[in-house]
Amino acid sequence: MGGWRAKMASGLVLMLGLVVFGNREARxxxxxxxGLRVNAAGVLTRNGAPYRGIGVxxxxxxxxxxxxxxxxxxxxGFSKLGASKIPFVRFAAGGYxxxxxxxxxxxxxxxxxxxxxxxxxxEKSNVGLIASLFWSVxxxxxxxxxxxxxxxxxxxxxxxxxxxxxxxxxxxxxxxPAIWGWExxxxxxxxxxxxxxxxxxxxVAARAMSFTTFRNAALDFAQVVRSIDSKRILLTGNxxxxxxxxxxxxxxxxxxxxxxxxxxILLRDNPDPYSPICIHxxxxxxxxxxxxxxxxxxxxxxxxxxIGRSAGxxxxxxxxxxxxxEAGGRGSLNEREYFSRELAAxxxxxxxxxxxxxxxxxxxxxxxxxxxxxxxxxxxQMIAESNRN
Length: 389
Known about the structure:
Elements: H1 2-22, E1 36-38, E2 44-46, E3 49-50, E4 53-57, H2 63-67, H3 74-83, E5 88-92, H4 102-106, H5 108-125, E6 128-134, H6 137-143, H7 157-173, E7 179-185, H8 211-226, E8 233-235, H9 245-249, H10 259-268, E9 277-280, H11 283-286, H12 297-310, E10 315-320, H13 335-349, E11 353-356, H14 377-388
Parallel strand pairs: 4-5, 4-11, 5-6, 6-7, 7-8, 9-10, 10-11
Antiparallel strand pairs: 1-2, 2-3
Helix pairs in contact: 3-5, 7-8, 12-13
């Protein structure tokens, strides 16, 4: 009886949490004002008007407190972003490893107390959130002790976990004005249909992930989200297609794709109802595209935007790296010049949404890390200025 009562009490707390975050009317939030939308003309909007903005990837804002519940340093991080009018962040709204999900499996009340504070901190600072629920799909596979390919099986424990977690998160925060959009995963298109995939990903042996597996799982996720939140943007989290993605999928090996073939894969990787189209790219990557026409970084971005317009989908440059791949060297740009040109190319492309990699990364060192206190603080100020303009 004691265990039954404890479960009932825990369930009541969770239901109360859903009321706090999920009841829009109780919180005085007008439904039409929530998040980012894509209208019938394929235009990204906020509060009913066309929207453009540049934000940051705040990858480990939540993961850090999952690993150390005493670490609420994200509060200061959000506060500084809000004070500088940097409008939104993209963050991992779930674990990166199986261990990160153990608290969810054993004590949802405690798990959601941590995530509640992250969302509330963003609300207080007037910072939007792009919530990526399954940044690492291998973390879920490992947590339920299944191989990664079981993401393609609708009856698997993996997919059951996905649906349960998605319902819990989206229901809980669908009433929060901080939530701008929902994302499935991160760069899951990159390992799809590789000719020589890694044989082990995470703790459980895994075969290559097929596009069919990715698509089935992504559409399942979208269906769960849409059953709760019918309007906010849905994002795959995918990167720019690999240089030879079309030929690789068609059995043509690693020959570079033509521009038309690239367009086919870009749209394939971001199927309806997902919109905007997601890309992760940098100036260094542009030198490899296309087989029939070489393009600059500016032209590559403009090509993606043009492809998106043909399908009624705006483009979100989810990750752009603010520093050159290699520092120094003859004829190389310094970081300020590099970042200035990169930012200008993104603005000129017409892509309405972009976010730099990475802000205030704490758990691991990152050569691209930006904070308001390190030597790259000027980049955050340049982003803030771009948003003001």
